[in-house]
Amino acid sequence: MQGLAGLAIAGALSILTSAGGCATTSHDPLPSWNEGPAKSTITDFIQRVTTEGNPGFVPPAQRIAVFDNDGTLWSEQPAYVQLLFAIDRVKTLASRHPEWRTTQPFKAVLDGDMRTLAASGEKGMLDLLMATHADMTTDEFADIVRDWITTARHPSRHRLYTRMVYQPMLELLNYLRANGFRTYIVSGGGVEFMRVFAEGVYGVPPEQVIGSSIETQFEMRSTGPVLNRLPRIDFIDDKAGKPVAIHKFIGRRPIAAFGNSDGDLQMLQWAAAGNGARLMVIVHHTDDRREWAYDRDSHIGRLDRALDEADRQGWTIVDMKRDWRVVYPQ
Amino acid sequence: MQGLAGLAIAGALSILTSAGGCATTSHDPLPSWNEGPAKSTITDFIQRVTTEGNPGFVPPAQRIAVFDNDGTLWSEQPAYVQLLFAIDRVKTLASRHPEWRTTQPFKAVLDGDMRTLAASGEKGMLDLLMATHADMTTDEFADIVRDWITTARHPSRHRLYTRMVYQPMLELLNYLRANGFRTYIVSGGGVEFMRVFAEGVYGVPPEQVIGSSIETQFEMRSTGPVLNRLPRIDFIDDKAGKPVAIHKFIGRRPIAAFGNSDGDLQMLQWAAAGNGARLMVIVHHTDDRREWAYDRDSHIGRLDRALDEADRQGWTIVDMKRDWRVVYPQ
């Protein structure tokens, strides 16, 4: 049933990603983008790198575009989706863990005390992560995520999380792929969390999802080999870790990079420093009516240093309120 | 000059990979393979997974084939090519390191004393690796490898190492790709060593090369951002590490796997345990005239447990002497 449900949702979700355009037809490939400098910079860039004979032409093999996920492809307020998943898991598993009633950060989760949870800091987050993400096989974890993402809804918007992806970015992903780009996700989020829905929701296959990871271990069991998820951090794919991961996984420098926070600064710097045509884009959360408005002082998705750097370097800043005709899929 | 030389050799080498066949034409896509059970098992498998309507049909996105490198795609005797590279680097750098004259394992390398070098064990190998592979940027390392692989020759065969790849395997790589497969290298060798030549020699792009790695660190220098190679092991992509790396980098289970030693056993077990049509192949070094003959007692590329497992599981064993019409490109 789990497998079938997963397939069904993936099929339904893939409809979302089929809306984008093809550069060779005359219709607008980015219908959810308002006309303006952000849209024209993007379309000019794609035109430039795909036109043979143009000095900015880039062969298809080198057309690599990298996207942050949280806050760049879907909403990250009031908390990262994966944290909301971990919180739900604690509630689900609480009956098997009576000790959580008196142990932080689990007590805070069960009491709905987000202030104490936040105050538990990195140590608390790590405890929460390991208690909910480890000590199971990779297949078991994928099944749990698939069940959750298929049904869980955002606390205030009451939408499925997979319907809180940005329609303009779905169109952009499609537009890039239609022009020979390979689109990668490079996120601080967990790689095995994202891979469950990235193909159905974004059209990004598992091998093009890069993220943070915990260690796994090969074990030969009586039922056959498994990969067991260990309660140990393997890699944090954030900040200076992003260019490291890009080099490790792709081995090529991207020519386009899309982020929304200081966690994406080094990824953008790394991509920007290559030769030839480049496109660096920051999604700026300016729309407190349709989405959220936050930047320099936000606890989540803080955009401060990268905003200054974007100004200095002339990177493209997408003003959600001004540049996006719609935010979420209708 | 380095860059141009690299491009030139990549171009020349790519000729090697253009020999393969296309499944839709009538000519033999594997001309360097003698008729026999190994060849027919391979061609039957590809036929089966690519024929729509056949119960074994596999959609293109899931056609993932993984190949070990040393001993599976090119020769690994009398030592791994990357070790011979490290030895050459020690000789090149010796004038800057007078202390190496009296320090093991460097003294052994400079004295040509392979017995003492081998006796230095894992610690010695690690010292040799770090002294020759770290403390430089990723770009600098790639340039050094490119210069070396373009000119260095095998100690007894006097061929370029890139001409000691197996012609039948080049044909097989092409044959698989012509049938919608993505071909990955999954090797114990260093990922940044292999990526320099894997595309030109094997037609395998950087993002499909998985290997062992040392840590890198993002640094912002006055000339721009770099990734600096640190003298610390990041991951050993061998034995039980191979399925871990396959899952981490690809996120899908391969349907075909090719190896030659016990270091590939877990990769083959992992790939074999998936549902649907599977192809597991072991290259058995049986040809002491055209290549080398070794298996259960070899120090390099030992094939013992995996040979037993192949018998038990009915995996395909390629007998180099019997099954290959030619070994190296002519």
What does this structure look like?
- The structure is a homodimer of 330-residue chains.
- By secondary structure, the first copy, chain A, is an alpha/beta fold.
- Chain A contains 13 helices and eight strands.
- In chain A, strands 2-5-4-3-1-6-7-8 form an eight-stranded mixed sheet, with helices on both faces.
- The radius of gyration of chain A is 20 Å and the shape is globular.
- The interface between A and B is medium-sized, with 32 and 32 residues.
Annotate the secondary structure layout.
2 copies of one chain form a homodimer.
Chain A: H1 2-14, H2 37-50, E1 64-67, H3 81-93, H4 106-111, H5 114-119, H6 121-133, E2 136-137, H7 138-151, H8 167-178, E3 182-190, H9 191-202, E4 209-221, E5 224-235, H10 241-249, E6 256-259, H11 265-272, E7 279-284, H12 305-313, E8 316-319, H13 320-323
Parallel strand pairs in A: 1-3, 1-6, 3-4, 6-7, 7-8
Antiparallel strand pairs in A: 2-5, 4-5
Helix pairs in contact in A: 1-7, 1-9, 3-6, 7-9, 10-11
